[in-house]
Predict the structure.
Amino acid sequence: MVSARRSFEGSMPVAALQRLCSALAGSEGEVEYRLDFGRDSLGTDYVDVRAQAPLTMICQRTLEPFVLPVTVDSRLGLIRKERDEAGLPPGCEPLLVAEDGRLHPADVIEDELLLALPLVPVNPDSSLPDALMNDGEPEQDEVQRRENNPFAVLRELKK
């Protein structure tokens, strides 16, 4: 595939990616992908991975499910031994290939999507409920802050 500079594109259901589904709140949607194989001017074999998918996650602020559009665009240098990683050009992530040279495209796409997931997913359209934001009267909060302030005594001495 590298020598022939092959490209593959298509779509697959999110439900087909079991490891990814275990990190999600739902398995709806399709992953659109494109894989481009090639060799750069330095002789490094690579695969460019591009994928887009709407992934259902749980917002850690509101604990409600939301759809997060995830986009992956990365270049992976194909290496056979870990020590070959040092020879990869900057911006090229290593991808360890089996000795027989076989590569499972679905696994590569799934790995890249897993790496693109946020550590703490938060829906950008969410906000905390008003009950949590205003659990007390604003005037009472200000009075309590003034009373609990360790410098309140100094303020009184200054007057």
The chain is about 25% helix and 30% strand. The longest strand covers residues 65-79.
